[in-house]
Structures are given as C-alpha cells and as structure tokens.
Write a structure and sequence with these properties.
homodimer; 306 residues; alpha/beta; UDP-N-acetylmuramoyl-L-alanine:D-glutamate ligase; nine-stranded mixed β-sheet; five-stranded mixed β-sheet; 25% strand
Chain lengths: 306, 306
C-alpha cells in the first residue's frame, strides 16, 4: 500500500450559509484532504499543528479513519487556527469574518521518521515557505508531489510561491487564481504559462463548472455533478485535492489515464462535501455510496459518438 | 434523407469585440442554425424574411450550402432586421447598441408546400407568437420539435411563450434564462420545473462552461472546448441549436443516446463559430475539420474509470 503524506491545517471553522450556521467545528485543508484520501487504500499520514484547545474527539475521528496523526503537533499552551466565513446569495461569494492564525503563525512542520517512506506528497494550502520546508524535510523523492495554493499567497509571498511551484509535479488552483498567476484570461493560455513555471500538470478548479487537467500535450475536463442543493462549499477544493492524490496513491500510477480517473474520483468526493456543513457528509461516505456517485459521473459524461 | 425545417431571423449584424469590429454582415438565428445544420446529410429548409436591401450574395451563400431558401420571403420595399452589439471585457457581457426590427415587426411566416414533409422542426429564437404560427402551419407532425428562446420573450410575452413551450419536445435556454423561467437557482431544480411545462427534454447552455441535457430521468453534460481565444460569441447558441437538430435529423433517431451525441456535435460546431467574426468560420468547416474537432471533444472528456 502506498504511503501518502499530507500537510495542511487542522483547524476550527465557523460557517454561515443561507441554510444555517455552525459553531466551531473541525475544519482546515489538512483535515479535508486526509478525510477525502481516507476513501482509498493508502496509508495517509498527516502533518499539522493544533493548540491545547483542540478536542481530543476530533483527533480520535481522524484516527478512526485510519489517518496517521503522529505528525500533528499539539502545542498545549497555544490556540488552534480559527477561520470563520459567511456565504452569500448562491454560494458564489464568501466573506471571511475571522482569521486567527494562532498555532499556524509560526508553524514549524516536524516530519516523524515513520513518514519518510513517503510515496506521494500532498502540500495543502499553507504559506509557500512552510510547504517548501516540508518538501525539503522529506528526504526520499516522492513519485508525485501535488501543491495546492490560493490567491492570498500570490499577493503576499509571490517569490516564495513561484519557488515552491517550480519544485512540484502538479499544481491545483481555481480559475481566478490561474488567471492571476499567469496574467492570462484564457484558461488554455494561462495553463501554458503556468506549466512553464515547473509543474508537469495543472489542475484548474471551476467549482460548480467542473475542473480541467492540463499537461503540455493533453487536456481533460471533469464535470461537477449538478446538484439540487449546495449546503456549504467549505472544503470542497481540499476534498478534491485529497481525492485526486488518494486515487493516484491507491493505483500507484501517475500516467495521464490514471490522472483523468483521479479527477473524476476527486469531483465525486467534492460533490459529497458540499451536501452538508463542514466535514459531516465526508464522514458518512461508504464504499457503496462512493461507487454509486462515481456511476453518476459516468452517466453524466459518457457518450459513444457515431 | 430527413427534412429539417428551420425558422429564424436572417439579418444584418454589426459586431464589436475587443478584437475588432465589423460592418453590417450576415447574421440572424435562422442563418446560424441553417449553416450549422448544413454540416449534416439533411434537407435543410429555411423559413425567414428579409428586406429589399438584403444582398443577393448572402442568399447565394445559403443556397451554396444546400439550404433550401424557398421559405425566405423578400419584401422589396422593406428593410432587413438589423442588430448591433458590443462585447466587453472577456466576452461575458454584451450591450445591444441597435435593434431595428424592420421586416420582423410583422413577420407572417409562409410555409411553402415543399416544406410540409417536415421530419424535424427547429423553431429559432423569434416571438413566441410567430413560433406558434409556424407550428400550426406545418400540417404533418414532426418527429421532434426544438424551440429556442430568450429572456426578452420571458419579459414581454410570458403567456404566449409558455403556450408554445408546452407544444414542443425540446427547449433550449441559457442558465440565466432557465433560472428566470423556473424561478429556481439550482439548474437541477430549474430543469425539473421546466420539464413540467411540457417539453420532454431541456437543454441549458452555459457558454464557456458547456451545456446540460435533462430528461425526467436522465442528465448529460457536454463540455465546451476550452479555447485560447474567443473572437466573437455571436451566434454560438444558434449554431449549437443547428448542430443539435442537424445531428438528430441525419441519424433520424430521437433516443437519449442520439441526443447525447447531438449535444457533442452541437458543442463542436459552436466552438468553430466563436473562432472568427460572424459566420466566417462556419463557412470554412470541412468534414475533416469537423471530425477532428469531435475527436478533441472525445479526448477532452473520455475516461475509463477503474
């Protein structure tokens, strides 16, 4: 079984959408990525940091999903990262209400020895400096490194971000971020430019409009599942990333056909994520539900042109 | 060979985009639909009206594509419908600068006897009253009737529109129009409501984000081809409609698998349309180019999930 190392925040989120609001619940990119990847036969090992205020039950939840949490530092005298956001209208816009970095402010990622046999590495959205530290501290060379980032880092850590982008195999961003990073409006042209920055593959996430996978010679489109109701989009992009790398790690194959299927698996898992608040629906996915959701994607997009 | 009857405007357009502007060129829903359908082995018969100012060469162009123009009335003492529009930014917004209805103001569609053997009927975007007149004046029952409309008619002819919608098999609208017509934001819920209005199938066009086909029990998504450059989106929706009905008429089959392939053919033809101003690129499509574009769609969206 492949070893998948994930770095990302494990945090408190408080979310408000037109359908309701939550108290502080478990959130963070690392949480969503690891929970999503836990749907595959891989050894998922999480690197993160939380404060003394982080409930033991949340750590137990991660462990119960066979996620190795040896790499989660618990800083007893500090507080866990906290994000609060409010979604408007039709979920297309959100305001960040609160961002308390707390333990993330000077996160020094420690890689347990048991994580060094890393086959696949997922660098979840964090400062590019921390992402690079993780890359450097993992001594063997992973078969595939995926990096997720966001516009925030493009604005405040552009150079550091370009450096870490140059060191990975796959970059995932959303459409606006691809445009910002490349300075190009057309996603096709944006992809060409970004692939020149180093990665072999680029994934552009378009939310309800699906996601595109680009290599220098190929292009694949994975649809999003049209849904009657989206309750909470929080974590959907991280869930997508976790599904993508989880599928690849399970198949232990990095050819383009495997990456295409990984896009479908990723989209299917993201479609679960938005059905309830926070991680609620991710915790309910069974192999049977997952398989049936994949079949919905196959039905949605398969044709046999004559 | 199936007989396809198309009704729609044959008009002058003057278009401005960030890439340039045109003088008065040939345009109109009927033109785009018929040119698009002419890529299939069908007898395409166009019903429309133009003024005495309409250049003979444009009619010759349509005839050269094997489009029957016996149903185009030429009103010598009147002027052709004229539309002028300007696209902004990234083609997502356009302003209508001029709309001169002219001959369309009191268009009384005449159906030549040679059009009565209609197998497939495409009601292009026009007032719902005129669309209904055409429906009534074609005496045999077509195997499939497709109706295209737009928000304009939802605003000023809501009742007449609902009536004609109840009489057709397939309705095509864009995402905003589907929301307006149904009063629902989710396209899945919107589709459910609209299918209750009469049509067996609904197509929701999402421009650069592809198009969805709904029946009461099935859903299919056709991607749009990501493009390095979109020169002029004018007519893309009509080209889509013409490709959709053209493919179905050629196959002479209305099962869901045929409709799915028709969505791909429609998307491929629409992708040509936007590559140049007006109908320029549509006039250059060869069977070989068309086949190769279809292959791009297959490559873009085919996966074999394991």
């Amino acid at each position: 079984m492949s070893n998948l190392v994930v770095v990302g925040s494990v945090a408190f989120d408080a979310i408000e959408t037109p359908f309701g609001k939550t108290d502080k619940i478990i959130g963070g990119a690392g949480t969503y990525i690891a929970l999503s990847a836990s749907n595959f036969n891989v050894n998922t090992k999480l690197i993160s940091v939380v404060g003394g205020d982080f409930p033991e039950e949340y750590l137990v939840l991660l462990k119960s999903k066979n996620i190795n949490i040896d790499g989660i530092q618990v800083l007893a005298d500090k507080k866990t990262f906290f994000w609060s956001g409010k979604y408007h209208d039709n979920m297309n816009k959100r305001d960040t209400l609160i961002t308390e970095l707390n333990v993330l402010a000077d996160f020094d990622p420690i890689i347990p020895d048991s994580y060094q046999d890393c086959d696949y590495l997922m660098l979840g959205n964090l400062s590019p400096e921390v992402q690079q530290l993780v890359l450097e501290r993992i001594t063997n060379k992973p078969k595939l490194i995926v990096l997720d980032t966001m516009n925030f880092w493009m604005n405040i850590s552009h150079e550091a971000l370009l450096k870490v982008i140059s060191m990975v195999d796959v970059l995932t961003v959303n459409d606006e971020e691809a445009r910002q990073l490349s300075g190009e409006y057309s996603l096709v042209t944006a992809a060409k430019r970004i692939l020149k920055m180093g990665p072999k593959y680029l994934i552009i996430k378009k939310g309800e409009h699906g996601a595109l996978l680009f290599s220098n010679t190929e292009m694949f489109y994975a649809p999003a599942l049209p849904m009657a109701q989206v309750y909470d989009p929080t974590g959907a992009g991280d869930t997508f990333a976790g599904g993508f790398i989880g599928y690849i790690a399970e198949k232990d194959n990095t050819d383009f056909n495997t990456l295409k299927n990984a896009m479908i698996a990723a989209s299917a898992l993201a479609s679960f994520c938005v059905e309830k608040f926070g991680t609620e629906q991710l915790n309910r996915i069974t192999p049977k539900l997952f398989e049936s959701r994949i079949q919905q994607f196959i039905n949605l997009s398969t044709f046999n042109y004559l």
